Amino acid sequence: MKRRNFLKSSLAITALGATKPKSLFGAPKRFLFKQSNIETDRIVVFIKLNGGNDGLNTIIPYQDPMYYQLRPQLAIPADQSIQLTNTLALHPALESLLPFYENSKMSIIQGVGYPNGNLSHFRSSDIWDTGSSEDEELITGWIGRLLELEYPGFPENSPEYPLGIQFNSANLIEFKTAESNTALYLYDPDTMYAIITGNYVNEQDEEIPDTYGGDELAFLREMDYMSYAYSQIINEAANNAPNTVLNYPDSIIGQQFEITARLIAGGLETPFYRLNQNGYDTHIDQVGSSPSYTGIHNTLLSDLSNSLSVFLSEMDALGLLEKVLVITTSEFGRRAIENASLGTDHGTSAPILAFGAGINGGIFGNNPQLNQLDNNGNLNLQFDYRQIYSTIITDWLGLNQEIATNVFGQEFEAIPFVQTPLSVKNPPLPAKFKMHPAFPNPFNPTTTLSYTLPKNGNVTIRLLDLRGRVLKTHRMGKQNAGKHLFKLDGRDLSSGSYMAQVEGAGSVLNQKITLLK
Fold first, then answer.
1. Is 371 exposed, middle or buried (0-12, 13-18, 19+ CB in 10 A)?
2. If pLDDT is split at 50, 70 and 90, which confidence band does 227 have?
3. Could you give the CA distance from residue 62 to residue 54 in angstroms, rounded to a whole number?
4. Which of 391, 408, 425 is the last residue of a domain?
């Protein structure tokens, strides 16, 4: 079955009606989305430009002579680019997005990345997906940790709709929690069609070996089961969506946008979508031999622009664009200087694009300083990518800054691209002393302990070995009621498991932490 027939084939989910286990859809309702701290119906659609998008040829500093000196073959001619300001222009393939920029429904955030950028596709993708620094290796995704905080006990206490949807080969780790995965993985339509027409084989009760391979099998089975369990909800949303008169490109990213639009228009309450477009690793033939604005990059951006513009137009026509935020991401940008193969090599920072009716349109940050490249010939960093994620958590979803800090282990300054930040209320104080999960855990070399005091009082933090012997003691003194963070440094410790102990408000709480060196 062709991908473009997926929407039609999704109607076949009703075939499950006679065979679906009652335990899936006939059980009492599980708790709803509104019972978390997220009290909005706003949605985020992430698009990964997989391979490392060339930011300089996407948002072009067309008045900078250095741009043309560094890229004699690759530079987009000024008279062919789409001018946004006196100094910046869009790649000509992005022309269909120009109306959104002109109507303040498109933002450009310059120079996004992270310190000491890693040039490996796999490692840098993991950094973006886990919300980590270059010297941290985390095993959970930043969205997974966020949703784990909002839905403790997931998947046992899962809501009645997927918390996240991933398409095709989007990276699975972004939604991963310590124990599970919070996203529904939409397989290729052939596989999805087999599931929804009753070819699902329930192997959930079969024994899984206690090996690394067994862990991977359990993870895949869990995603498979979630796909099956949520199929009726997805079908209902697809049936509820009004028929569109707009035509999406018959491409992979076009089909992903079409499915996303139908599910949102049909009332699916899923807050996170991750779309994926491959092909941006443009070491060779990034541009055509003549003219320079043709070639692989042009084809990719044209497909993205045409698909995205249809999606935005449909959301706008349905009155839904106010609640939809679209964000592009890529694991890194490209080098400022072209290579000898009509392409570019791996770089570091690059612009990120944001779209929606609820954003502040325009440009955030400065034009790239092409005469001030770093020692490796890469563009300098202006914004940490976690500033964008943190802004989404606080300003777009309306969650408290402490939650964002808990997700990333440190606080990142918001970027004011959200037009109407939701009011953020401090969470109510608990009735008793509470210790939250350490992050990251396992860790190397540091982890952050967090705890909430119901009233003012003295706090002491201890590190114990598993025999109960005290290795370190930190007397924090009197602290105010509310949530507090403490960074535990394990540089002088050996690999292994320890007990973190926090004493306060008349209680002593312990948590097992593991240092992996």
1. exposed
2. low
3. 15
4. 408
